[in-house]
Amino acid sequence: MTGIERETMEYDVVIVGAGPAGLSAAIRLKQLGGDDLSVVVLEKGSEVGAHILSGAVLDTSGLDALIPDWKEKGAPVDVPVTSDKFLMLGQAGALRIPNFLLPPLMNNHGAYVVSMGNVCRWMAEQAEALGVEVFPGMAASEVVWDEDGTVRGVVAGEFGRNPDGSRGPSYEPGMELHGKYVLIAEGVRGSLAKQIIARHKLDANSDPQKFGLGMKELWEIAPENHKPGTVVHTMGWPLGGNAGGGGFLYHLNDNQVYVGFVVHLNYENPHLFPYMEFQRFKHHPSIAEVLKGGKRVAYGARAISEGGWQSLPKLTFPGGALLGCSAGMVNVPRIKGNHNAMLSGKAAAEAVYSALTAGRASDELPAYEFKVREGAIGDDLRPVRNVKPFWSSFGLFGGLLLGGLDMQLQNRLKLSLFGTMKHRGTDAQATGHAERFAPIEYPKPDGVLSFDRLTNVAFSFTNHEESQPCHLRLADKLAPTGWTLKKYAEPAQRYCPAGVYEVLRDDDGSNPRFQINFQNCVHCKTCDIKDPAENITWTTPQGGDGPNYPNM
To answer: What pLDDT is attached to residue 404?
Structure first.
């Protein structure tokens, strides 16, 4: 924004995002540089962990590398996996796939069922003890650029704009935080990462990024149904051939379970309603019998990067680097990315420290790029690189067969008969015209196992200051009713897991109007990914807004 005077704070390193990647980078920097390095972490959530949503079965390799004595330091990682099941669901029954048929990398024994929100809260404590400045409630809303495109820093802490964007009576301009290096760890489809990738064409030599929508509830269940450490993954019903994806059930401690569902966003049928597929999933006997007598205590949703190896953009730019899910480091068949996020933060920190001790600043970090691609992260992503493309091209069963064969060959012989398969187009481009598909009828939620969206959004504890500008920007305000409604039945009504988008009509069904209820937004970014017109841009609202996830 021009004409705004802001205070400037100078740091050696500015980190955007207090997730596992950003906090790992901060911790490693202070382990290496101690008090000689100034490090700040900016977090848009009201507190560290408020916006963290992940499965999560944690592969501790990243944590082991970063803080080897994490057990002695009291990390909230204390529910080891004791049972690991993979089910193929039909409408009324389930077929268990024997573990010995699965590639070894799919084995979850040795991992832990965790709340990543609580893990990040603990990591923030470790970072602060080392001298890292952690600022929650500080949304990084703009990139500070040098004229040559070098990233100098970010703008954070702007508050008080009116709905029309003008400055309100309590306007606070925020400040510019400058760093010798800026590390972007915003998570999936971050608004600053998107700008940096576009300006520097970091994705010019990679495939389009692919995404899934993950939805999750935390339940307290009857003690007799609780089996701490039990991990269940499912495929098949209710999605069938309509979309790729699957469900999970993870037993924590204290009679709690996570139940969740992922829908791959490259589905064609615009009538598909991912949230309702999740609610229907819970009525399957294999899931319902566990939840019987329990109660839902929290809900959330977020996008998941699924492109993997082929979709990794260039990771470095003048002045900094992309970390973790800002680049897309999820291992899709393992449904794990937190370990890679931590490893990427550690690798970035080591590259930054080497650069700073050599007297460098605001240049690129090729050592980081090399470490990611040729180190443990690359070793994790390369062997599974064809699973997602196979699924996209050949559906559930063909994808399972070919993907499983490819993973087995890569595990045993370190080779692939298929080379590297390509991703075909973006998820937005995958959306088909509504006239080609029949609408899907979904059962009405019963209020016991399944719930309507707005009721569930209340359990995400989402809050936005309503007097601020809408952070969901339309490039063309007429497109939703003038184009996507006619061609695609306006899928934003359905793909949003928080009921943000509505098409309102007069009593006689005429005069359609597109309404954005941005107060409901849980920051999943699905609209920025799946809109077939690519008309919606997610930007960060003011700091402290959004969901406030407990134990998620």
So the answer is: 84
Strand partners, 230: 83
Domains contained in the chain, number: 1
Specify the pLDDT at position 2: 56
User: Is residue 39 assigned to a domain?
Assistant: yes
Does 458 fall in a domain?
no
CB 12: neighbour CB atoms within 10 A? 18
Residue 461 lies in a domain: no
DSSP for 327-361, please give it.
T---BTTTTB-HHHHHHHHHHHHHHHHHHHHTT--
**Could you tell me which residues come within 8 angstroms of residue 223 by beta carbon, excluding any fewer than 6 positions away?**
255
**Residues with Cβ < 8 Å from 346, sequence gap 6 or more?**
24, 25, 28, 62, 65, 66
* Interval 432-446 mean pLDDT: 97
CA–CA separation, 425 vs 389, rounded Å?
11
CATH number at residue 47: 3.50.50.60
- Tokens for 454? 């707005």
Strand partners, 235: 88
Phi, psi of 450 (to 5 degrees): -125, 150
Buried b (16+ CB within 10 A) or exposed e, 488-512: bbbbbbbbbbbbbbebeeeeeeeee
CA dihedral over 189, 191, 194, 196, signed as positive or negative: negative
Does any domain span residue 317? Answer: yes
| Residue 433 burial (CB count, 10 A) | 13
Q: How confident is the model at residue 67 (pLDDT cuts 50, 70, 90)?
A: very high
CA distances from 302 to 190, 212, 489 (A): 12, 9, 23
Q: Which of 49, 41, 24, 39 is nearest to 546 (CA)?
A: 49
Range of the domain at 317: 8-70+117-161+171-206+313-374
CA-to-CA distance for 503 and 488, rounded, in angstroms?
Answer: 13
82 contacts 229 by C-beta, under 8 angstroms: yes
User: pLDDT class for 100, splitting at 50, 70, 90?
Assistant: confident
**Do 313 and 369 meet the contact criterion of CB atoms below 8 Å apart?**
no
- Give the model confidence (pLDDT) of 207-248 as tens digits: 999 999 999 999 999 999 999 999 999 999 999 888 999 999
Select from 432, 127, 511, 428 the least CA-distant residue to 270. Answer: 432
Strands in 230-236's sheet, in edge-to-edge order, are: 94-96, 83-89, 230-236, 245-251, 256-264, 211-220, 295-305
